[in-house]
Amino acid sequence: MQCFPSLVLALSSLLGALALLQLSLYLRVPSRYGKHDERLCRPRGRLPARCAWFVQELPSFLVPALLLALRSPPRLEPLGCRLLCCLFCWHYFYRTFIYPFFTRGRPFPLQLLFFGTLFCIYNGFLQGYYLIYCAEYPSDWCTDIRFTSGLLLFLLGMGINIHSDLLLRQLRKPGEVTYKIPQGGLFTYVSGANYFGEIVEWFGFAIATWSLPAFTFAFFTLCCIGPRAYHHHRYQNSNCFLQCAASCSWDAFCKMPGRGREAGLEYKVKLKIIMLYTRSILTCLQLGESTAVHWKSC
Ligand SMILES: NC(=O)c1ccc[n+]([C@@H]2O[C@H](COP(=O)([O-])OP(=O)(O)OC[C@H]3O[C@@H](n4cnc5c(N)ncnc54)[C@H](OP(=O)(O)O)[C@@H]3O)[C@@H](O)[C@H]2O)c1
């Protein structure tokens, strides 16, 4: 394989377009997983969170690692370039092999899992391909201000992200689905501290690599989890938060009025009432018509 700059440009532009699409889709309505998933108690079309996060994030680690292994002769000089590729893989090693095994999240919708996995293949290829086959850095890149400041931001963002994910996890006992207001760490200042950390992390990576693919990925992250952070903030002040915080188990949650099967039953009853109304109106109309005909003939 060799470097095709036009391929990098095309894939980065598409990623930028996808970012704008995300922003327009999810600015008003949040993506439907976790606390924003109303169809939670329907078990069909869902995978346990642990399994889902593992499957979804694996390609982001595997694709660049495979590209790296298949590159012959290995070209990861200078040191800066090698480090940058390792940073990307390091984040996704954490996200694939550590995060899923500790998560206490809700089952994940298969449809979102499918698109998430596609995205991870796409982005893993773009970032890996660029760093392994195209990136050119001077031999003293490791001492460049962009590299050092970007690396520091990346590490800071990753630290915030991991710490905030840990704080969120500690809000629940195993099997619980309650929502509590996260406290401590950066949650004292930002309600979406885990998202804030991830955004800082990828902008740091973009500065350190000083590349179009990394900047578009950072922009994508901002457009994807920025609106979600905003919806999380609003959710925390809503009635639904209080309702969900009151239930302490799956069973209790699914028996809440308006949720799961009960919501389905309510819907069916409403549908029957509407049909009954429609039928009686039609009958009345027919009756009216036949009476009018009768009077006319008299
Ligand atoms: N780079 C990207 O484009 C991108 C995109 C998406 C996600 N991510 C990263 O992936 C990680 C997970 O994302 P996410 O969207 O699942 O984050 P999230 O909605 O904040 O949820 C994270 C975990 O914490 C639980 N949780 C959230 N709020 C809680 C509360 N108030 N009380 C108790 N538990 C709570 C969630 O449970 P429930 O599942 O039950 O809500 C879930 O298990 C984050 O670190 C994020 O930065 C990155």
Automatic annotation (TrEMBL):
GO molecular function term, any single one: 3-oxo-5-alpha-steroid 4-dehydrogenase (NADP+) activity
Family matches, as Pfam families: Steroid_dh
Annotated signal peptide: none
Subcellular location: Microsome membrane
Domain 3-oxo-5-alpha-steroid 4-dehydrogenase C-terminal, residue spans: 107-236
Residues spanning the membrane: 7-27, 108-133, 145-164, 202-225
E.C. code: 1.3.1.22
Keywords: Differentiation, Membrane, Oxidoreductase, Sexual differentiation, Transmembrane, Transmembrane helix
PROSITE patterns reported for this sequence: S5A_REDUCTASE
Domain of life: Eukaryota
Bilayer topology annotation: Multi-pass membrane protein
Catalysed reactions, as listed in the record: 17beta-hydroxy-5alpha-androstan-3-one + NADP(+) = testosterone + NADPH + H(+); 5alpha-pregnane-3,20-dione + NADP(+) = progesterone + NADPH + H(+)
Keyword DNA repair: no
GO biological process, one term: testosterone biosynthetic process
InterPro entries, A to Z: 3-oxo-5_a-steroid_4-DH_C (IPR001104), SRD5A/TECR (IPR039357)
Keyword Ligase: no
Family: Belongs to the steroid 5-alpha reductase family.
Protein name, as recorded: 3-oxo-5alpha-steroid 4-dehydrogenase (NADP(+))
